[in-house]
Write the structure tokens for this entry.
Amino acid sequence: MPRKSKKLEPQIVEMASQKMAVVSGKGTPEKVFTELMPALYGSVYTLKFDLKNKGLPTFKVSGLRARYPDAATKPKEEWNHIIGLPIPNDTAVLPQKVVGIEVRLETWQYGTVAQILHLGSYSEEGPNIERLHRFIKESSYEIAGHHEEEYLTRPNAKVVKTIIRYEIKKK
């Protein structure tokens, strides 16, 4: 019987706080992401190229993250989305690229988190979310933050890779 990859097992790790460029919306993920991504990516890539043009250190645009504060309590059409991209911690101002959609600065706090790598469709995350919840409880922790997902691949990738994460604290 083949061994499971350690990356596919739930784990507890320490994560540093992260400065983020953030947009928010309400509705189904398909609707919200379609509406908000041009503003978010436009802002972050403009920041990146502004730094490059000034001869300053730049950064890699990576790891789109989304927090879903009410995904477990509301139907998908009513979900609130907080979607962000990591940016340099010394960023003080973000360029705004799409009228009517504010891209704001936030620092996302982490500390101790529990996470699991999910391979496959977003609609098939349920068993891994349940597995992660059990792992948190069995490890004598409780969830202390929102459901968060970090998207390692595009939604149309051959194998979609998503990290499912929760801030946790000892019971």
About this structure: The chain has two domains: 1-17+109-171, 19-108. The first strand starts at residue 11 and ends at 15.
